[in-house]
Design goal:
The complex is a heterodimer of chains A (about 350) and B (about 375). Chain A has about 350 residues and is of the alpha+beta class. Chain A has two domains: about 170 residues, Orthogonal Bundle (Butyryl-Coa Dehydrogenase, subunit A, domain 1); about 160 residues, Butyryl-CoA Dehydrogenase, subunit A, domain 3. Chain A is built from eleven helices and ten strands. In chain A, the strands form three sheets. In chain A, strands 1-4-5-8 form a four-stranded mixed sheet. In chain B, helix 2 packs parallel to helix 5 and helix 6 crosses helix 8. Chain B is α+β, with helices and mostly antiparallel strands and about 375 residues long. Classes of the chains: A alpha+beta (about 350), B alpha+beta (about 375). The interface between A and B is large, with 48 and 48 residues.
Chain lengths: ~350, ~375
């Protein structure tokens, strides 16, 4: 099951999301290239992977669906696939029809005195059709028609600052929070960690390849111990990021345990720093050119690292939980891992 | 090559060992101060090992017909984790339980298994591992200790060093040259089980910087060995050692060397908070950082254990996890030292300070023992397809 999903997602993304297409979508996030790519993904059925089978979904949990998110990172997918999967699952559970466009999730949002709604630095905000926000009145899915959005990040970034003049009439209300209230930020942090693990894997593979093919001093640079040591570090960090995300996405449903999400995002963030830095160090100057693909993945590693809370934020959350309880570190770790 | 390391659970039947092991171990070490418990798998207590054996917690992976418990690697993982987290003095039985026993079970003759394995499982036969030599450290294949064939066995001559616990052990499994010259590298090496009481063997402990004696020099002057001292086949010592190192490198002892200090520090912060002081944000972040690293490392180690359990020899994966693990073990005393020194106006906690001092002094060995960080990284690079 696991490899079946991984293999078919891989096949689809290889075709519809090659580096040139990624660049086209980044240049025009609501243009033809973006809508063509989204159609392929929507038709593949993967966007309903977590929806129950009686609602046309595959009824999977993150445990089985995690490969989809890893693959999104590995291919630098310039669309909010993971967020869409998540929100569609939440809507399906509440028997609410989901919109057909891609959905982004805001890390934070607020209603201003004049009734306008503001969400800053929304990941994939430039490429989404809808944005999920948590407002004082509850969780709302807001259409981007009629909203103003401006690019937030650096070149190629799909992150946006978004303003709605008011809560749009067409917005969709999610059911009021219960005991099982989902923490969107934590869940998205875990999913972002999984994307980072995918991107880290891609950067590692590219770096090994480059080290084996680039000759200096009459031999491949990968024969130099100094390079080997660095690539080994990078591979270990890449494995750590993958495991961190796998722990958080280890559950049978679509909910993610917030402590496990904290582990995932904090650990993947640390890994991302080293993976991106070593990837660039080994590639040399070619690695920072626009033409060479490396930057597509390292840019995402650096950007994703800061989205939905970074290392200090999540380590702080996790540390406070650990210190306010009386469990030893081993039991804390054990129980956290078993809880997912 | 490196295979994937999936997230797996420890099976419930093995997990169920935990509470009884914990009760016994925590009780046994209750009166030991943390800087002594921080010796972890360097601490020697033969009585403790015998009591552990009596409860069936040594030789968990060894076959029942030879006194073992046939439980597998997950069971050993759970027991090892509880022992190390508590800082139990496990070194007497540690090396036999971890690698010598499994080596004998895999390569030994029926007679060797019958002779050694039951004694290991009773906690009565302690082993040390004779690998390094004065001229063969990271370059293990250049060993010069030799065994030559005699009419009724072997005669051995040479010198091992950095052998942990040789002075407390009954037996050594030594990697020695049986043919060719050191330049032949991996070819011509064999493994022998030596009774350390044999004539011609001299053991000299080496005092470490913390004042302890755990590793030793061992001299062999024309030591006479029977034919039955050879373990496995003549000339395949290198392959056997490689398989053994997967056991040596994969286990929880590569994550928990600073565990006692970590727990003591967390408790100290909790006491500080209970006395009315605010939790410092930097302590929260640091505690979280330890927790996020430990959670991932432990899951990686469990995943490697799963491969051992499936009968694989995850040599490169184990090296990768050991590299990450020892980095964590070394970071714990370094970062806690800084956290403690961040409050110069507060009253220090003496036992915490002593534990930091001890670990800081021995922490460099964490990434030396069992294969240095640099050697492991070269192995990992080869596993990744470099060279």
């Amino acid at each position: 099951m696991d490899t079946m999903i991984a293999d078919s997602v891989e096949q689809i993304l290889q075709v519809c999301c090659d580096p040139q297409r990624v660049r086209h979508v980044e240049a025009d996030p609501r243009g033809k290239a973006a809508s063509t790519m989204w159609e392929v993904l929507a038709q593949s059925g993967f966007i309903d992977a977590l929806c129950p089978e009686h609602m046309g979904g595959a009824g999977l949990g993150w445990r089985e669906a995690a490969p989809i998110v890893f693959a999104c990172g590995r291919h630098a997918l310039p669309l909010p696939m993971a967020a869409t999967l998540l929100v569609r699952a939440a809507l399906a559970e509440a028997s609410i029809d989901a919109p057909s466009e891609p959905v982004a999730v805001a890390s934070a949002a607020s209603v201003l005195d004049d009734g306008s709604v503001r969400a800053d630095a929304v990941p994939f905000g430039l490429a989404a059709g809808w944005v999920l926000v948590r407002l004082p009145a509850g969780d709302r899915l807001l259409p981007l028609d009629g909203a103003s959005r401006s690019p937030f990040g650096g070149r190629g970034s799909l992150s946006a600052d978004i303003r709605w003049p008011a809560v749009p009439a067409a917005s969709i209300s999610l059911p009021p929070a219960t005991d099982q209230a989902i923490c969107w930020r934590a869940t998205m942090a875990a999913l972002t960690a999984a994307q980072m693990a995918g991107a880290a894997e891609r950067v590692t593979v590219m770096t090994i390849d480059h080290a084996n093919n680039r000759n200096q001093f009459g031999k491949p640079i990968g024969r130099q111990q100094a390079i080997q040591q660095q690539i080994s570090v990078m591979a270990a960090q890449s494995f750590a990021a993958r495991m961190a995300a796998s722990i958080a996405l280890g559950g049978a449903g679509w909910r993610v345990h917030p402590d496990a999400a904290a582990v995932a995002k904090a650990r993947a963030g640390e890994a991302a720093i080293l993976v991106a830095a070593i990837g660039h160090a080994v590639h040399g100057a070619i690695g920072v050119t626009e033409e060479f693909d490396l930057q597509l993945y390292t840019r995402r590693l650096n950007e994703w690292r800061m989205e939905y809370g970074g290392e200090s934020y999540w380590n702080g959350v996790l540390g406070r939980t650990l210190l306010q309880g009386d469990m030893n570190a081993l039991d804390f770790t054990r129980i956290l891992t078993a809880a997912t | 090559m490196i295979s994937e390391l999936p997230f797996v659970d420890i099976p419930g039947e093995d997990e169920s060992l935990r509470q009884s092991v914990r009760r016994f171990v925590r009780d046994y070490v209750a009166d030991l101060p943390p800087d002594i418990r921080a010796r972890s798998w360097l601490g020697f207590d033969a009585e403790f090992s015998r009591q552990l054996a009596a409860r069936g917690w040594i030789g968990l992976t060894l076959p029942p017909e030879h006194g073992g418990h046939g439980r597998g690697h997950f069971a050993r993982f759970v027991v090892a984790e509880e022992l190390l987290a508590a800082g139990a003095p496990v070194s007497a039985h540690w090396f036999a339980d971890r690698q010598s026993g499994p080596l004998i079970a895999k390569y030994g003759t029926e007679a060797q298994k019958r002779f050694y394995l039951p004694a290991i499982c009773r906690g009565e036969a302690f082993f040390c591992i004779g690998m390094s030599e004065p001229g063969a450290g990271s370059d293990l294949a250049s060993v010069r200790t030799r065994a030559g064939k005699t009419a009724d066995g072997w005669q051995m001559k040479g010198h091992k060093i950095w052998t942990s616990n040789a002075h407390h052990s009954h037996y050594m499994i030594a990697l020695v040259r049986t043919s060719g010259v050191p330049e032949d590298r991996q070819r011509g090496l064999s493994q022998f089980i030596l009774d350390l009481k044999s004539p011609g063997i001299t053991i000299r402990p080496i005092r470490d910087a913390a004042g302890d004696e755990h590793f030793c020099e061992v001299f062999f002057e024309d030591v006479e060995l029977g034919d039955d001292a050879l373990i496995g086949s003549e000339g395949t010592g290198w392959e056997q050692v490689t398989a053994e190192l997967a056991f040596e490198r994969s286990g929880p002892e590569r994550l928990y060397s600073s565990s006692v200090l970590l727990e003591e520090w967390l408790d100290a912060i909790r006491r500080r908070a209970r006395s009315g002081k605010e939790l410092r944000p930097s302590d929260q972040v640091l505690a979280g950082r330890f927790a996020s690293h430990l959670t991932v490392l432990r899951a990686l180690s469990v995943s490697v254990t799963c491969k051992l359990e499936a009968g694989e020899s995850p040599v490169v994966e184990a090296a990768l996890v050991k590299d990450l693990g020892t980095e964590f073990e070394q970071a714990v005393p370094t970062l806690i030292a800084d956290a403690l020194a961040a409050t110069p106006d507060e009253e220090p906690v003496p036992q915490l300070a002593r534990t930091v001092a001890y670990l800081t002094q021995v922490a460099p060995t964490f990434s030396l023992r069992g294969g240095t960080r640099e050697i492991l990284r070269s192995m990992i690079a080869r596993g990744l397809g470099l060279r």
